[in-house]
Amino acid sequence: MKLYVVLAVALIALTELTMLLTPEREAVLIAAGVMAATGVLGVRWAMTRRQDGYDDSHARDPAESLRRWLVRTETLIARAETTRTDWDKHLRPMLARQFELATGQRKSKDANAFEATAEMVFGTELWQWVDPDNVSRTGNHEPGPGREVLDELLQRLERI
After folding, report:
1. pTM above the 0.85 mark?
2. What per-residue confidence (pLDDT) applies to 121?
């Protein structure tokens, strides 16, 4: 797709350069318009051709969706049981985003309301594992909180 756009722009630029070197200056506008229309039609043709070739049979397959969900869930559980760095890098942002979506509280809007809501939902002990500002710099040597904490956090998010 990007190739078609670049080619169209290059074709228009080449046409304008060629037309500027010719003595008939009135034809520059017409030639540039024709080349722009050709470029737009070429990109449109490329887009429709690409969509026609798309195979969405796997997208609607319930078994494939279930397999992808299972793999994603196993990955999340595995990351919860490894190091704190894995937790901070993969799970903490996801949990914080889910918390913001579930409560409607944005830290950027009102930090105090965000913290108060978090304390009510998770409590002090669990909030430390969701708090986006509690990322450890030496997390490679610290263990992650584990599957039980992840399970409790997800249950509390479901109750919101």
Report:
1. no
2. 92
